[in-house]
Amino acid sequence: MAAYLTLDDLVRRFGQDEILDLAEDKADDTGETIDQDKVDRAIQDATGEIDSALAGGGYRLPLASVPPILTAYGCDIARYRLYDNRAIDQVTKRYDDAIKALRAIASGSLKLGLPKVDDEVTSAGDVVMMPGRRTFPGGVF
Length: 141
Description:
mainly alpha; two-stranded antiparallel ribbon; 5 helices; 2 strands
């Protein structure tokens, strides 16, 4: 699986306070530690949704590089998963928009400009060098 997003991506987009609120490590008495396992589950869910859409759209997995738009979609999906049953309207809308975009990728109506499974891999072939004289029109140099 490609790494579409990380905890750092979530924190950069939504802030440390929001992610801490959504995934506070209850075993830490300070209340200032993020539960990495909970975040990892949300990231895995988002990754599964993205991989499913890309595979359905015929893209080669794993991706050699991740377009930033997939990181944005992944963050919106993971954030929604972290909210669980208490997602606010804005979070739900962003999740719905990400899913809609992934469906468009799967259907082929939204293109990422990445290689697909059925794209022909071209090879430069063998290069053969033959030493000798060069003949140009009009004479030999």
